[in-house]
Amino acid sequence: MINRKSSLDLTLVPFGYSQLQGRLVDVHQVPSGKRCGCVCPSCKAPLIARKGNKKIWHFAHDSSSEAFQELERCSYSFFVSARMMARQLIGDSLEVALPDFEIVLSGQGAESDYPVHVSESVTTSRQVRLHDVVVDAELNGQRFDILGYVGEHSLAFLLTHPGRDGFPLAGNHAESGIGMVAIALDGLKDEFRKLRSPDDSYGDILTNYIANDTTSKKWIFHPRQQQAEEKARAKLAKALSKKGRAISHARRASSPIRKLPGRQDPFNEDLLAELGRVEKANNRERTFKYVCRLCNSSWVGVGNVDASCKQCNNSLLVSRVELDT
Fold first, then answer.
1. Contact predicate 127/247, CB 8 Å
2. Exposure string (b/e) for 171-186, b if CB count within 10 Å is 16 or more?
3. Is 47 left (phi over 0), alpha (psi -120 to 50) or beta?
4. Can you spell out the DSSP letters for 202-247?
5. What is the rounded distance in angstroms from the CA atom of residue 3 to the CA atom of residue 227?
6. How confident is the model over 152-196, as pLDDT tens digits?
7. What are the phi and psi torsion angles at 38 (to 5°)?
8. Which pTM was predicted?
9. Which phi and psi angles does 61 have, rounded to 5°?
10. Angstrom distance (rounded) from CA 85 to CA 1
11. What do you get for the CA distance between the two ends of the chain, in Å?
């Protein structure tokens, strides 16, 4: 039984190139040790098939070979061998699960404290069958690991891993309408650790990973991508406008009413009459002592009604003092 918890060094190789068979082989398909007759697909150094009970089975570089010094330049031999083996295992047709693709845009208005996010679906996850599949194909100046057709539409795949992460520029293929998907091989390390017995095959795991794993796949370009981006931009503009109006309305509702500079409120006769009645009522209730400074006479009266001097009819030189009631 193989120890499933064993670590997997990236310089350990799951697939070697058999010099006798002239093709890549799984470590499970060859004898142990140097008798495997395999070399590294990446650096061409001789390999040793390690098939013990403590670690998962793998090829290792032969440290006694003259080519062992090249190991430093073979840091990603695990991924290189997996990528080359994937090409070898794929026939002229392939069933593959494609991932979701969604355009997500964000924007923030001038008066907003938080951004607005919108999304527009380009395609949903689905299973497709590719026909007329070729490997290591070149199209429009870009090399792809896998190229096939879904109906009349072309679909290309690029196998990526550490040391090989560059995506082709999608803009170069927009006019041609070629769908492009990247498949990251990083997750293979964990999948290979799940190997239960020597009867299992790395090749089977690799084939299933390429065909059915969607978390490892990412759209580089989709023929409907530009249309979805235009819809997302329109949706974002509408959402920002709506949020801006809501913020302005909320601020107006919470702000006190202010008189604009240079603007006069219209004359309101009813309001002025009401104010006069209030003032008159207030004055009727207040008692004053009046003194005429013209004739020195004095008297007690109420409000403005008794504000004129009875002796000399003077109303301008009259002072008053409110009396406590």
1. no
2. eebeeeebbbbbbbbe
3. beta
4. HHHHHHHHHHH--TTEEEEE-TTHHHHHHHHHHHHHHHHHHHHHHH
5. 50
6. 899 999 999 887 766 665 455 666 678 999 999 988 888 887 776
7. -120, 155
8. 0.66
9. -70, 140
10. 25
11. 110
